[in-house]
Fold this protein.
Amino acid sequence: MNGDRLEYSQAKIRNILKKEFLISEDMLKQRSIEEAAEALETYESIEEFLDKTGWRRDNPECSSEEYLTGNRICRWVDGTLIYFSRLIWEEMETSKIGEIHV
């Protein structure tokens, strides 16, 4: 990932995930907030997000601010653009399959 890490309390991150990215409370109970925070990045602008992530190159038809915020890929929170990578969050879960905890 290419943006800055989100530096909010766990309660604030939980609230952002629920309100801005529509992650259910049930899902948040199954997964840790720390894992979700690993999939969150901040950017100063849509342009910075598009440039650093390569989103515009990979998804040219889905690169407008209206599309990105309307589909909850990115959300403006307190003047900061936040991107939640569901792919990274889901990969964290699948990478744990088969782990042995002693």
The chain has a mean pLDDT of 88. DSSP finds seven helices and four strands in the chain.
